[in-house]
Amino acid sequence: MKELLGETAVRAARYLAAIGDRRVAPGVEDIARLEALGGALPEKPCDPAELLALLDDIGSPATVATTGGRYFGFVIGGTLPAALAANWLAGAWDQNACMRIMSPVSAKIEEIVMEWTVDLLGLPPGSAMGFVTGTTMANFSALAAARSAVLKRAGWNVEEDGMFGAPEIRIVVGEDVHVSVLKALSMLGLGRSRVIKVPADGQGRMRADALPVLDDHTVFCIQAGNVNTGAFDPAKEICSRARDAGAWVHVDGAFGLWGAVSPLYGPLLEGVGAADSWAIDCHKWLNVPQDSGIAVVREPEHLRRAMSWGSAAYLTPSTGREPSHSTPDSSRRARGIELWAAMRSLGRSGLREMIERNCRQARLFADRLHTAGFEILNDVVLNQVLVSFGSAEQTLRVIAEIQSDGTCWCGGTQWHGHTAMRISVSSWATSDDDVERSAAAMIRMAQSVKE
Ligand SMILES: *Cc1c(COP(=O)(O)O)cnc(C)c1O
């Protein structure tokens, strides 16, 4: 075991050391070589060291270098050294985070992370949290709590009696709602299509002058950090209107909520802390390994009611917080450990520095591209940049060139009728040199397409 883990560390370190020099997306040949991992299932066991060598030789070149400094696709983030180290040790521990009695260390670390998270993000102390796989599941879990609370107020027990015959719930979302909120609504029996959509402005923010009438059977889903522009819905206005009406406000704050750690971006989030629930991603901007997110609910009883199991003689809850009563999962890995490692290794100032640096780098990208004559389509308020390289066709060709060139990686999007390239700066590993190299490659490619 010791030799195997030592060899693993050597190979992993070699992979990470080379990541700055390799192309970001794997080549076609690298992907084709993955066939070597298949074939008929071997009849006999094999030596784990041989298997590791095969996985590294074939698998490593076919990875997408998302954990390096020049991946700007989607919103992904890398892995901080302390978070990776904690992930390895936690892998060796192989804890089941389901119940306190199965893993006191995981249960305790989750409680510590809960305190640090409310402190860092300005959320209500004492909020309940479920440690889930990402924001999709965090949206699902928090909206399950919202559904439970709103129906309970109307005299309906959705956990026992289901949705058939239940009083109606009104769901309000913005025109630029993230698809994961709609997916969560569909999984909860609330439907993707029966939502009320609030018109958005040019940055994708809900228009405060176009809010519908709210009441106490409304769940209002707002966004802190639009996945294209980084813009924030007007939380202060919405939360105060919702409070007067008795409506529930849920915040999809996947990456944007991390802006709260910096006084520079705090004003964008004004009022967000007055909501009832929040969904946060940790594998994005906190830079822990995939997969990791947190569902946060102000009133713990609602998450607990939505996520508790019925009774089973062998699963007796302990006193205190029982982790499985906050998540859709029962058995799961102890992903709180990496959050603890990331937060403790960076500290408040390190986290703030990382967020501010990434936002500054986004502005640097926008500046370089604008100076080279290309149009920036959004107000760069956070870490997201939308750029057009001319016509839709030209922009798509530039994106394809950038992806195959390999210096960096960006994807495309449609933004209010324009075809655009998205740049998301969300990795601790991104240096200013990475930004300059990548911007230069983008400009080179865009000019060659123009000619
Ligand atoms: C990424 C993202 C999600 C979905 O998060 P996953 O971690 O992929 O499940 C939801 N909302 C926003 C705004 C996001 O950026």
In summary, what is this structure?
This protein is of the alpha/beta class and 451 residues long.
Rg over C-alpha atoms, rounded to the nearest angstrom? 23 Å
**Uncertain regions spanning at least 5 consecutive residues:** none
Mean pLDDT: 97
Bound molecules: pyridoxal-5'-phosphate
Helix content: 40-55%
* Total beta strands: 11
Q: What kind of sheet is the major sheet?
A: 7 strands, mixed
Beta-strand percentage range: 5-15%
CATH superfamily of the largest domain: Type I PLP-dependent aspartate aminotransferase-like (Major domain)
Question: Which fold name corresponds to the CATH topology of the largest domain?
Answer: Aspartate Aminotransferase, domain 2
Distance between the termini: 58 Å
Structural notes for this entry:
The chain folds into three domains: 2-63; 85-341, Type I PLP-dependent aspartate aminotransferase-like (Major domain) (Aspartate Aminotransferase, domain 2, 3-Layer(aba) Sandwich), CATH 3.40.640.10; 348-450, Aspartate Aminotransferase, domain 1. It is 41% helix and 12% strand. It is built from 13 helices and eleven strands. The chain has helices spanning 2-18, 28-32, 48-59, 81-93, 104-121, 135-153, 158-161, 179-187, 235-245, 300-307, 336-371, 392-405, 432-450; strands at residues 128-132, 170-174, 196-198, 218-223, 248-252, 277-281, 293-297, 375-376, 384-388, 411-415, 418-424. The strands form two sheets. A seven-stranded mixed sheet has the order 1-7-6-5-4-2-3, with helices on both faces. Helix 11 (336-371) packs across helix 13 (432-450). The protein is globular. The N and C termini lie far apart (58 Å). Pyridoxal-5'-phosphate (PLP) is lined by residues 75, 134-136, 178, 180, 225, 227, 252, 254-255, 281, 293. Residues 75, 134-136, 178, 180, 225, 227, 252, 254-255, 281, 293 line the site of pyridoxal-5'-phosphate (PLP).
